[in-house]
Automatic annotation (TrEMBL):
Localization terms from the record: Cell membrane; Membrane
Upper classification of the organism: Bacteria, Bacillati, Actinomycetota, Actinomycetes, Propionibacteriales
ABC transporter domain sequence ranges: 345-594, 616-861
Region span, Disordered: 867-887
Protein name: Dipeptide ABC transporter ATP-binding protein
Residue ranges of the TM segments: 25-48, 97-119, 126-150, 156-177, 267-289
């Protein structure tokens, strides 16, 4: 039965939805103004009553202007020319210069930005120096200098217009260059660009298909905003006398210059009409540019509901079939006294509904649970089940499109319905939150100490000196090394685990009654995760804090939780004490969730593969990265040697920074080794350039960690899977189409997914597409870098099952990189353990994971939480003895 979820990404703030109507109005108004000027420019000879230089003085003394009349609607100038005619012909001049300037500057600046950002090196340094020098000039002064240089050889209207356009182009080129170069630097490190390099895509195709297609979304906004700047620059040149030759074409800036003496004599019409034309066209272009900036921004774009009412009925039917007669939510009472629990935080019939353009999305459906002082309640379930939404509702952190009903009580105080001013003193003081991703929860421009102090001073009347002292105490409390100095560190100077400790320090700064920890250990190494869990438990024990732990990691739940609340599609389907839930889960979904969790030490993994031919041979590999100014080089991989045979999976494990991913990237040529050799199927691949590697690229595939970023968002699924076939084979388009459908069938997606785009697929489906693309060329070697770390446990289980089926059928050799030892225990024939760039232990799976010889391996295994509370309690005790013995 396929699982579908309602995406909460559609829940955009109401102010954004309302502002879209205003943005569309502004866009239409801007287009209407521009369209009017375009029509005037095209039909200028028909619309203008006279020529732009025709003398209409009628023999009147030169210098006497005629006021607006039936003959001259806008009056005449000091030279006797018709103002209306000059405004109309000036429109043509302005649009010709604008179009030429924007087109020329984009044709020059965009390619230079792409090449500079992607290739780097001396070309990048030279271009940056040139563009910075040009950008340092005041734009109008630079345009004047270029105009003076160019107009010496230009004559007539065409020459004058072209010279003006080129002078403005020189001003704009650095702007296009800087924006495109910056965007290219960000895009070129995306995994989907690396995946293109892995299959041998040439640089021109990478620049066009993968980079330009993703940075080009900036061009409409830049172009429209630069167009308004071009109008003002052209007018400035004309006003100062450096613009187009007056006899060659009408130009508004020149007319304003000539009208300047008239202002003091009450002759208003010679300046008001060309000035108004400049204002109107700038307004029109600016309205289009600003509206495009908001409308093209994907973060501000609303999407319709992905499911129809029929789909809703089908989902409801599936849910009822799964839940059966089991009560979805039950009131939990103290098992010893059978009396009503004393709760620090209590949710009752909490429901959250999001309003979208296409209707309502029910994210949370009347859930009820509580958490007592000193208790840890784990809220578990897959992505989209409503875990985080319910916790954010408690603190009033949901967008304004959310409608929240029910009750959330902190002691005897009702939190729901509080105004921002009323709930602000509660946030961070009585109820605090540990956010899932510390890198985004911390402000990158302030030191971590400043951010802790800010929270303390928001709730306590305390001097900055005393608040700083308290911040240092908190950092010491959460186990931060050298807190006196690191209090002044910025987030980027800390590791992921250290940043998570800072977030926890901020959460406990005011001794809260309740801490809501939203996935506090996601993406952390097992040893860092163990330390964070120890810290949270010590806080619970010392401060009596109630903890709501939101996670999908059932090992963490077994290690920490007193009780467990299981959520499924916005409903609570089961809640029970942790020991009871793991031992005797009642609900089918709970049983399925627990069955999908790999359990270290209980997996019946594959045996050794000894006789097969050698596919990968790494000998004495060293990889170093240059240090900063005055700093030595950093050695990421230190003399590593390993081998993988056909049909074998080697699990490469270790903490972040141990060198695992660097080995994988070096193996496929994404990173050059400092020394050592790498052979794939008997061919040396180390030290070769991209061009030399291209014929060998078909020998290996790569599955990246993040399925969302490993697929080009601008390419369909069919195009993503077909790209290796286009690059490496001579197959016809019909043969490629058939192969793509066969590959999608092999990963259980089917041909109907060919025309879909990555954002239309779930995380598990995207990872299956990545696997199909990696296997498109039937590689001898597959590098899988954390391919399941971003997936829910049930999705992970299916992807791993599919991976095993394909590996056994196709018999490719695989380097499986992971920090999840339980997953490695499921798949690997052999296991290699990395620490600080060195290989500390390698051997058969059952020996390395079951009877490790090295102390580091023992610590690594001891830190892995298992989904069994009783076993985890014994492991915790054993881990304490182990650390004592090792120390």
């Amino acid at each position: 039965m396929p699982t579908r979820r309602l995406s909460l990404s559609r829940a955009v703030p109401a102010v954004v939805r309302q502002s879209h109507g205003l943005q569309r109005f502004m866009l239409l108004l801007g287009f209407a103004i521009i369209a009017a000027f375009v029509i005037i420019a095209i039909f200028a000879p028909l619309l203008a009553p006279y020529g732009f230089n025709d003398d209409r003085s009628g023999g009147v003394l030169f210098g006497t202007q005629q006021a607006p009349s039936a003959d001259h609607w806008f009056g005449t100038t000091v030279g006797g020319t018709d103002v209306l005619s000059r405004v109309i012909y000036g429109t043509r001049t302005a649009l010709e210069v604008i179009i030429l300037a924007v087109v020329l500057s984009s044709l020059v600046g965009v390619p230079l930005g792409l090449l500079s950002g992607y290739l780097g090196g001396w070309l990048d340094r030279v271009l940056v120096l040139i563009m910075d020098a040009l950008y340092a000039f005041p734009s109008l002064l630079l345009a004047i200098v270029v105009s003076i240089v160019l107009t010496g050889g230009a004559s007539g209207a065409v020459g004058g217009i072209l010279a003006a356009a080129i002078s403005i182009t020189v001003v704009f080129v650095p702007q296009y260059y800087r924006v495109i170069r910056s965007a290219t630097l960000a895009v070129k490190v995306e995994p989907y660009v690396d995946s293109a390099r892995v299959v041998g895509v040439r640089t021109p195709r990478i620049l066009g298909r993968h980079i330009f297609s993703n940075v080009a979304q900036n061009l409409p906004v830049i172009g429209t905003l630069n167009a308004s700047e071009a109008i003002l620059t052209l007018a400035g040149l004309g006003f100062l006398g450096f613009g187009i030759e007056p006899s060659a074409a009408a130009e508004w800036g020149f007319d304003l210059n000539k009208a300047l003496p008239d202002a003091s004599n009450g002759i208003w019409w010679t300046s008001i009409f060309p000035g108004s034309a400049i204002v109107l066209i700038v307004l029109g272009v600016t309205l289009v540019g600003e509206s495009l900036n908001d409308i093209l921004n994907p973060l501000l774009r609303t999407r319709g509901a992905e499911t129809t009412s029929a789909d809703e009925k089908e989902i409801t039917a599936e849910f009822e079939e799964l839940t059966g007669d089991i009560e979805p939510s039950v009131e939990v009472r103290d098992t010893e006294t059978s009396e009503k629990r004393v709760a620090a935080l209590s949710l009752s019939d909490l429901a959250v509904t999001f309003r979208t353009d296409a209707g309502q999305i029910h994210a949370v459906n009347g859930i009820s649970f509580d958490v007592a002082p000193g208790e840890v309640v784990a809220v578990v379930g897959e992505s989209g089940s409503g875990k985080s939404v319910s916790s954010r509702a408690v603190l009033g952190l949901l967008p304004s499109t959310a409608a929240v009903t029910g009750s959330a009580r902190l002691g005897d105080r009702e939190l729901l319905g509080m105004s921002n001013s009323d709930i602000r003193p509660i946030r961070g003081d009585q109820v605090s939150m540990v956010f899932q991703e510390p890198s985004t929860a911390l402000n990158p421009v302030y030191s971590v100490g400043w951010q802790i102090i800010e929270g303390i001073q928001a709730h306590r009347d305390i001097s900055k000196k005393d608040a700083r002292k308290r911040a240092i105490e908190l950092l010491d409390l959460v186990g931060m090394p050298d807190p006196e100095h690191r209090v002044d560190y910025y987030p980027h100077q800390l590791s992921g685990g250290q940043k998570q400790r800072v977030v926890i320090a901020m959460a406990i700064a005011c001794d809260p009654d309740v801490i809501i920890a939203d996935e506090p250990t996601t993406a952390l190494d097992v040893t860092v995760q163990a330390a964070i869990l120890e810290l949270l438990l010590s806080l619970r024990d010392r401060l009596g804090t109630a903890i709501v732990l939101i996670t999908h990691n059932m090992g963490v739940v077994a290690d920490m939780a007193d009780r467990v609340v299981v959520m499924y599609r916005g409903n609570i389907v089961e809640q029970a004490p942790a020991g009871q839930l793991f031992a005797q889960p009642k609900h089918p979904y709970t049983r399925a969730l627990l069955d999908a969790v790999p359990h270290l030490g209980r997996e019946n993994g594959p045996g050794l593969v000894d006789e097969n031919e050698l596919v990968l041979k790494v000998e004495d590999l060293v990889v170093e990265f240059p240090g900063g100014l005055g700093q030595p080089a950093f050695r990421a991989v230190d003399h590593v040697s390993l081998e993988i045979r056909k049909g074998e999976v080697l699990g490469l494990v270790g903490e972040s920074g141990s060198g695992k991913s660097t080995i994988g990237r070096t193996t496929v040529g994404l990173q050059q080794p400092t020394s050592g050799t790498i052979h794939v199927s008997g061919n040396q691949v180390s030290g070769l350039s991209d061009r030399q590697l291209r014929p060998l690229r078909s020998r290996f595939g790569f599955v990246f960690q993040d399925p969302a970023s490993s697929l080009n968002p601008r390419m369909s699924i069919g195009q993503c899977v077909a790209e290796p076939l286009h690059v490496q084979t001579e197959m016809t388009q019909s043969e490629i189409d058939a192969k793509v459908r066969s590959l999608l069938d092999s990963v259980e997606l089917g041909g109907s997914y060919v025309g879909r785009f990555p954002h239309e697929l779930s995380g598990g489906q995207r990872q299956r597409v990545s696997l199909a693309r990696a296997l498109a060329l039937d590689p001898d070697l597959l590098i899988a870098d954390e391919p399941t770390s971003a997936l829910d446990v049930s999705v992970q289980a299916r992807v791993l099952e599919l991976f095993t089926e394909l590996q056994q059928r196709l018999q490719f050799a695989c380097l499986f990189i992971s920090h999840d030892l339980a997953v490695v225990d499921t798949l690997a024939n052999r296991v290699a353990v990395m620490q600080n760039g060195a290989l500390v232990e390698i051997g058969p799976r059952e020996q390395v994971l079951g009877n490790p010889q090295e102390d580091y391996t023992k610590r690594l295994i001891a830190a892995v939480p298992v989904p069994d509370p009783e076993e985890q309690r014994r492991r915790r005790e054993a881990r304490g003895h182990l650390l004592t013995d090792i120390s």
